[in-house]
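Researcher: Here's a chain I'd like modeled. Treat it as a single chain, no partners, no ligands.
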Amino acid sequence: MVSVGNLTLGGTGKTPCVEWVARFFRERDVQVAIVSRGYGAEQGRNDEAMVLEENLPDVPHLQDPDRIAAAGRAVEELESELIVLDDGFQHRRLHRDLDIVLIDATRPPARDHLFPRGTLRESASGLKRAGAILLTRCDQVPAGDVAALRQWLAARWPQTPVATAAHKPAELVGCDGATAPVESLAGKVVGAFCGIGNPYAFRKTLEALGATVTAFRAFPDHHAYTRADVDELTRWADALPAGAVLATTQKDWVKLRVPALAGRALWAVRIGLAVLDGEDALAAALERTLASGGREPPDEPT
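Model: Modeled as a single isolated chain. Structure tokens:
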């Protein structure tokens, strides 16, 4: 079992990392299942599950507050060889072979505080349990800040491999399977909205693509959109300048599934994880989980 988790209440970008890890093992012909608690799930599937289901159609995703029972079903009923536990760092009742802990480079733990004063679920000392650390959103802070964070981690946990990553926009997704290159947002006026843990990271992503974000709406994380929300967003979209593009995250889009608002096409930005540095060490840690399970890792992905 590989756990992908963090120290904070959310917003570190776990879903793209879970997808990256699951894809890593599928490329090695390992039968993988994803297990999560399912925060905000309705009828057994929340936004994260729907995104992963869309991007990884051959990887089952079991959501259950009883993650031990879900893991058991994954092994016994689905014959899974490896489980990726989503948001499992604090769920210590399940044995795992590797804990990958994500740290958002824009919110380093040394500058954060325990909830409710800050966003930390536990103190940074909990990183002693990590088998690997992945710094996310490293493209959104100066390189010196990333280097300082790596030095801070190395001084305390020198044996723990640290990799850096960015959440890169992969493509725009619309209704009926339509896609468009993310570069098409360059120079465009954009109205954007989302309900994720770190909404302003999404705004920065759009701005980094060259979009001018003229209006932005942030909803609570895992927001369940209602008919009233759609009506309000329609009025909001109608007030945007002529020619403005409507954009949201894939997590929000899979819940809305509306082709347009106020006659404007709605596009979702599909995000993928790009490991910038330390991928070899991270891959080696993942390969060791195969060996610990009695399976010889392949020389090359199949």
